[in-house]
Design brief:
single chain, mainly alpha, Sodium/glucose cotransporter, 71% helix, globular, transmembrane, Na/Glc_symporter_sf
């Protein structure tokens, strides 16, 4: 990097902070901070939904998969995400919007107290928060790794820089700041992605590179849709996992649906995100697929960064680096906002009576402090993400998140649907608890005693399968549907407009949060 690249990077950070400060005037209460007051346009929600699903892990961990296995990286990652979001556009997006508009909540988990009971809500809230701290920590480490490749800045300093800038804009401006910065980040990464694609084609055979390189020996096996540990069982499991996760199972995506003005807008938002997931990753992945023709490296995770350094002129190189930051900051800021919503709306009111008596000012202040606390903890975890315990970045993101997300998300997501009305708190808690236990059992005791360990596809799929089967089966063996639960499910499944107020009440017993 030279002075021009640094100017682009510093300018980007400045714009992100400025958007956060500008968004501050749009945040008057908890509803504005967590769900944009239900006033976000569907197209902005869709772009925000798409951008908040990326991170720099794509340019490190998934770049390694692309460098090693080729198109498998698309077939087993962005393609199932696109299909999952398309399914959720009709199945989950409108229902999550009605959770806000008809039940008047600000957190994706608030409705669980009535759908199941308080212990179920707390179990899902605490376990999800802990998982997200680790998940976001991996993403800080990924962007810091890239920054280190380009600038020589240490891993910890890179984590501190990106985390501090993100903390400013998402703490000040809430979900509005997240969405508006994500729009800017989308424009930046669009330009950067096209620039990288053009540079790679110019280095090889021009436009014909798109179809003429696949017989090269260095790309042997790169056209196989499934390869290595990413086989059919992994693909099917990943489709199920991402259908739950990217439609709200890990909360930040749910907020994008909740933030729109209607169930119809939420559906349109999801459809836009699904199209972007289907098309745009092809542009980003192609340079990674053909990278073995341009560079040789023993560290495939560095391949995209090394290729950018070799091919791009200064200025454009800075823009590509900004693109790396934009992905990670978009995802981490959206996660921080979602976690703050769960902590202040679901966890703290259950722990302290005083919280239930907070006024508007205290509720908003707590939301901002919770955001800062989450970012600080995840940054601390990031400094340890390459330790022996976590193994490496891609292990955390694929194995931990994919394997643990299912048990946490299944009661939340399936609880929205009328076909599972008989599954109550017993089904939810047992499916959650045994799903987490299964993850530990498969990934550690069993894996330690199997030659070569348990294959990745089973590490992530078995916990999901156990939770899914138990949730449905226990619902039929021990049905816990009640008139109150049936009425709640009917309210979020009924197309009748009904109540569309966007006001968000305080946690039980509080006053003045609206």
């Amino acid at each position: 990097m030279n002075g021009l690249d640094w100017a682009v990077l510093i300018g980007y950070f400045g714009v992100m902070v400025a958007i956060g400060v500008w968004s501050h005037k749009r945040v008057d209460n908890v509803s504005d901070f967590f769900t944009a007051g239900g006033k976000m346009p569907w197209w902005l929600s869709g772009i925000s939904h798409h951008m908040s699903g990326y991170s720099a892990v794509m340019f490190t961990g998934y770049a390694a998969i692309a460098y090693t296995y080729g198109i498998t990286s698309y077939v087993t990652w962005s393609f199932p995400i696109a299909i999952g979001i398309a399914i959720g556009a009709k199945l989950f997006a409108p229902r999550l919007n009605r959770v806000r508009s008809r039940l008047h909540v600000a957190s994706p988990l608030e409705y669980l107290k009535n759908r199941y009971n308080l212990p179920t809500q707390q179990a899902l809230a605490w376990s999800g928060v802990l998982l997200k701290i680790v998940d976001v920590g991996a993403k800080w480490a990924a962007i810091a790794t890239l920054l280190s490749v380009f600038t020589g800045v240490s891993l910890n300093m890179g984590i501190l820089i990106t985390g501090a800038v993100t903390a400013v804009y998402c703490t000040v401006g809430g979900l509005w700041a997240d969405a508006l910065t994500e729009l800017g980040q989308f424009i930046i990464q669009f330009i950067a992605g096209i620039a990288m694609l053009v540079a790679v084609m110019a280095e090889l055979n021009g436009f014909s590179t798109l179809w003429s390189v696949w017989d090269e020996p260095a790309l042997d096996g790169h056209t196989k849709p499934l390869a290595g540990p990413y086989m059919m069982v992994f693909l099917i499991a990943y489709l199920f996992i991402k259908t739950f996760e990217y439609n709200g199972g890990m909360w930040n995506q749910a907020q994008r649906y909740m933030a729109t003005d209607s169930a119809k807008s939420a559906t349109r938002s999801a459809a836009l995100s699904a199209v972007l997931w289907l098309v745009w990753p092809l542009v980003l992945f192609f340079p990674m697929w053909v990278a073995p023709l341009i560079i040789k490296t023993d560290v495939p995770a560095d391949s995209y960064a090394l290729m950018a350094e070799q091919l791009l002129p200064h200025g454009l190189l800075g823009l590509v680096i900004v693109g790396f930051f934009s992905h990670t900051m978009a995802m981490c800021s959206s996660d921080a906002n979602a976690i703050a919503a769960v902590v202040t709306r679901d966890i703290m009111p259950a722990v302290s009576r005083k919280v239930r008596e907070w006024d508007t000012r205290m509720g908003l202040l707590a939301a901002r402090w919770a955001t800062l606390l989450f970012l600080g903890l995840s940054m601390a975890i990031a400094t340890q993400v390459n330790s022996g315990f976590f193994d490496d970045i891609i292990t955390v993101v694929i194995k931990w998140v994919a394997g643990l997300m299912g048990p946490i998300a299944i009661p939340l997501m399936l609880g929205l649907l009328p076909w599972f009305r008989k599954s109550g708190p017993t089904a939810a808690l047992i499916s959650w608890g045994l799903g987490l236990f299964t993850f530990w059992l498969v990934n550690y005791p069993i894996s330690w005693n199997v030659d070569g360990g348990v294959p990745l596809q089973y590490q992530v799929s078995i916990p999901l399968a156990v939770s899914l089967v138990l949730y449905i089966l226990i619902g039929y063996v021990k049905p816990e549907d009640t008139p109150e639960r049936d009425a709640l499910i009917e309210k979020i499944n009924n197309d009748d407009p009904g109540s569309t107020s966007t006001a968000v009440p305080a946690p039980a017993g509080a006053a003045g949060v609206e």
